[in-house]
Amino acid sequence: MKKQFYRIGEHVTLRPWDRPNYEAVAAWWEDFQKTKYLDQFEVWICGGIVEGTETWDVDVILTGDYRYPADLKHVLDEGITIGFKRWLLVDIVWQDKIVYPMEKFHPYKRIRNFNEVEKQTFEEHILKKYKGIEIYPNLFQQNFQKPGKSIKFARKMIKEGKYKLGVQKMSEYIYNNKHTI
Questions:
Q1: Which among 51, 145, 171, 177 has the fewest CB atoms less than 10 Å away?
Q2: Can you give the C-alpha Rg of the chain in angstroms?
């Protein structure tokens, strides 16, 4: 019998995650705020969790100038690790700027701490590879000269009326949604 697992780069979990909700994201944020080197970044949240649409992941973007690549790697690793501990799939990246889907596109850089994602269930095996270039051990950078899949997907959701709120600072998302508890 095949064993179920999910791998994001070096991070592996055997337990399926839950669909994210405000309470789970707030708990993740409470833990994540204690992460060493996080003070170098602004933390943003976007995607289905912000928009109230059904989703399986929490999309998090870090911006800001980091001192050392190892600092960025540590923060990205902690985001995923804490997510797995909280039964959340946290898709966390660093970008040199926030890209708003309906505004004029400007090229940007994105760094991940993984270049492939692997999922094994009883029914299927999926291996998704990204096109990042390794710039530091287990840090992969992509330079987007035109809108990528995530921007195109967000534009589609906006046109369908499913996305209206866009990208928010994590602290504002947490504060503005406290009433939902």
A1: 145
A2: 16
Q: Six-digit token pair at 117? A: 């994602």
In the chain, which ranges are E strands? 5-8, 11-13, 42-46, 57-63, 89-95, 108-112, 116-120, 125-129, 133-136, 139-144, 168-169
Average pLDDT, the chain: 93
Residue pair 141/76 in contact by the 8 Å Cβ criterion = no
pTM above 0.90, yes or no: yes
Closest CA to 91 of 125, 48, 42, 147: 48
State phi, psi for 161 to the nearest 5 degrees.
80, 10
Q: What is the DSSP letter of 160?
A: T
